[in-house]
UniProtKB/TrEMBL annotation:
DNA-binding region residue numbers: 29-48
Annotated InterPro entries: DNA-bd_HTH_TetR-type_CS (IPR023772), Homeodomain-like_sf (IPR009057), HTH_TetR (IPR001647), Tet_transcr_reg_TetR-rel_C_sf (IPR036271), TetR_C (IPR011075)
Residues passing through the membrane, by range: none
Domain spans labelled HTH tetR-type: 6-66
Organism listed in the record: Solirubrobacter ginsenosidimutans
Protein name as it appears in the record: TetR/AcrR family transcriptional regulator
GO molecular function, one term: DNA binding
Record key words, sorted: DNA-binding, Transcription, Transcription regulation
Taxonomic superkingdom: Bacteria
Keyword Transcription regulation: yes
């Protein structure tokens, strides 16, 4: 009979996520993960498999959570759809300014997607999910009369995703909050003027 685990699995996953997020995948060893989690390497292997399997669990949970979080913030009545888009992008701009960590989804994608088909597929799924959430919000704003109904909601959803990801990348690179907020407001004004 297998012994019960002597650690809180979710706490270990959170600690491992923080380590991957801070250092990246390649710069994180199983020894690093053992030190970060307080769990021996043998136990980590037994519970999660190898480093890649643990990273994919973390990456998948984070990616799924990013889409669910966007849904929670953007879904709602048509009347408030444009303001929800605006608030979402401005909050991202504020959170991205001077934040060298950035988003784990973006970090993992940029580090691994070109060499790891599993990461690439998961990232693609997450980005498509985010774009679909943004497109639904655009459709709501169109029905409310806040955005031009002739624009393609899917194309605008992709643009919102690009601004969201671009704002974060600029923040990681040292862009300050006022500049990022101006970028967002300029983008949103361009949507209204179409």
């Amino acid at each position: 009979m297998a012994r019960p685990r002597e650690f809180d699995e979710e706490a270990v996953v959170r600690a491992a996520r923080e380590r991957f997020w801070d250092a990246g995948y390649a710069a994180t060893s199983m020894t690093d993960l053992s030190e970060a989690t307080g769990v021996g390497k043998t136990s980590l292997y037994g519970a999660f498999g190898d480093k890649h399997a643990l990273f994919m669990r973390i990456f998948d949970e984070y990616s799924t959570g990013a889409v669910k979080s966007a849904e929670a913030e953007l879904d709602g009545s048509d009347a408030g759809a444009f303001e929800r888009i605006r608030a979402y992008l401005l909050a991202n701009a504020s959170g991205s300014a001077g934040n060298p960590r950035g988003c784990l989804l973006a970090r993992g994608t940029s580090e691994l997607a070109n060499a790891d088909p599993e990461v690439a597929a998961r990232a693609k799924c997450a980005y498509e999910g985010l774009s679909a959430v943004f497109a639904r919000a655009v459709e709501g704003a169109q029905r409310a009369g806040d955005l031009d109904p002739s624009t393609d909601p899917r194309a605008v959803g992709d643009l919102i995703l690009a601004v969201h990801r671009g704002t974060e990348a600029l923040g990681r690179g040292g862009a300050e909050e006022p500049a990022l907020r101006t970028l967002v407001e300029t983008f949103l004004a361009s949507l209204r003027s179409r």
